[in-house]
């Protein structure tokens, strides 16, 4: 049950919060001076935080890709279909 609560809490973290906590975990691991058990707990926490960050980044990438695809479709529909056909027709008549 505690694991489910921890997952829910991690999902509520924003990207910046998760990133900042991950940076702190890495610093603590690099500094040393912790017991094996503490180091393992920090490592596991770092893995979970990295997953949270990855989910945020994957979501941001998907949103950017969708926006770029939408823009590309809009340009093709507006400039590609109607504009070129009229210009081509005008060139042929001249």
TrEMBL record:
Query: What Enzyme Commission number(s) appear in the record?
Result: 3.1.11.6
Q: What class of enzyme is it?
A: hydrolase
Which key words are in the record? Answer: Hydrolase
Listed name of the protein: Exodeoxyribonuclease VII small subunit
């Amino acid at each position: 049950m505690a694991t489910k609560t921890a997952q829910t809490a991690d999902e509520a973290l924003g990207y910046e919060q998760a990133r900042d906590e991950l940076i702190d975990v890495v610093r603590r691991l690099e500094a040393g001076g912790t017991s094996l058990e503490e180091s393992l707990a920090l490592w596991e926490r770092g893995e979970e935080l990295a997953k949270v960050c990855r989910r945020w980044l994957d979501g941001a990438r998907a949103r950017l890709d969708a926006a770029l695809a939408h823009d590309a479709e809009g340009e093709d529909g507006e400039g590609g279909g109607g504009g070129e056909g009229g210009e081509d027709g005008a060139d042929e008549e001249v």
